[in-house]
Known about the structure:
- The protein contains 16 helices and 19 strands.
- By secondary structure, it is an alpha/beta fold.
- It has a 9-stranded mixed beta sheet, sandwiched between helices. It has a 4-stranded antiparallel beta sheet with strand order 10-17-14-15. The chain has a 4-stranded mixed beta sheet with strand order 11-16-12-13.
Amino acid sequence: MTLSKKHRRTYGEHWTPVKVFQEFIFPKIKNELNNYLWVDLFAGEGNLILPILASISKENRVEFFKEHLFLFDVQEHSINQAILKAEKWGIPRTVAKQNIFKKDTLRDFPAFLLQREKPIYHITNPPYLYLGYIAKHKETKKYLEYFQGKNKGYQDLYQVALINDLRHQLEKMIYIIPSNFLFGYAVSNKIRKDILYHYYIKKTIIFEKVIFDHTGTNVVVCFFERKSEPKHEPQTFPGIKLNDGGIQKRTYSLYPEDHYRAGNEFTTFVKQAKALLPLKISFYLTKEEVQRNSGEKELTVIDANAFKGKQYEKKSIFVNEKQYEKVKRNSLFLKTVDSGTKEGRAGLYEIEKVFNVDGILVTRARYRTHPIQIFIEPQMSKDDQHLIKDYFNTMLEYFREKTDSEFMTTYKYSKSRYTRKYLGLKQARQLLETCPIRTLNEKEKKQLEKQLQKKQFVLINPNFF
């Protein structure tokens, strides 16, 4: 890891390009410049605050800076760069140093700003560093203290920044943060619940394209406005999504019962349409399981942990009769990650057709991005497994189209209109549990097969679609 990359990882810093402010933020605030203190508590070089000066006449610029702009950062070199940029806008160095501060604002909120006549409007791109990474690396363990006491349960430094603003009752904020704030599951449930009890999201801008120089983190710009009275209630707001294929306008609805998570159509469906007799699903054929069931029956498998060249390594394993039958009678695997084309999207596939083997073995760590053999109970015939596969893939594609794949996680950016996505194992299990195959007779199975071919879903849940 290069020194600069290690430095960025240590501080969770990703400096915002000025054009992001100019194109997406300034047009929303340009008519309110004299009404607020414009503050960035994690300012870096100042790209989210200092460009305001371009709209202020030269004769008024210094006075406006004194009264309205306040920048903070924990790093000395960032403060120095911000002061230099202020000087380029015509702000004397002595004046710039009065409003640009070195300060750890995660630990110590600048309370003196709350005493001023005008309210704070916080515009920021806070540090992103999730708790799991912090705990595993020596250079970041010092941040664990931020997640103690009243901050226990939050999962990322940006979430600590948000909750600090809530506690200091800021009226308005614009945050550039990881899009898992809107679309994440457990990682974001607590911060969404706490923030959206007190704030409305007025609008969002979602970037499914790289906007930072050194990270592919998928980000969203959220415009927050404090409620007059805290309460849990549904929220609906406009948003735009930008990727290399263009701009899409969308309307988002968040509901307290879904932890205010966006892209909730999929979640609502898997809750409402769970089958009366759901399939029981388990994942992975492991080395340990094979060793416990060793015998004389031969199976051919690929090793999911041994990818050489352009294919997985094939090997033979020897198991007892019971294990042999279990592997042979479960012919499907889950592909959790999209390939680079729509033909290789996440979904269920047949092991034999794709890899020409009996099973998929995990010899070391279980990686969720590897092909994963699935095991279904009760035992299903090959025809029934084929129907399950078609059901799963058809429903998955339906919700991908309906939600623009927002219930999935962005895996990797593409230079085309196609953005690669990741399907979680929990989501895969939930969707499989909606398959009604265990309660269908042969005639109904044929009917379901025809409906899937025609993209008709009435039989599955007539009240949902």
